[in-house]
Amino acid sequence: MRKDMARISLFVYALIIFFSLFFVLTNGELEIRCVSDADCPLFPLPLHNRCIDDVCHLFTS
Length: 61
Prior knowledge:
The chain contains one helix and two strands.
């Protein structure tokens, strides 16, 4: 009985941590400053970054 309660509470704690990280990552817009396209991070195709108005923007090909 106690093992089941411990597993349930551990599961609930893991869900709380997962969802809090998810909300932090999705609500915080990451703005990467740049001067040229070379300053933006590389992504695998079909994604690519462009430097527009000194900020990196992600596009699909």
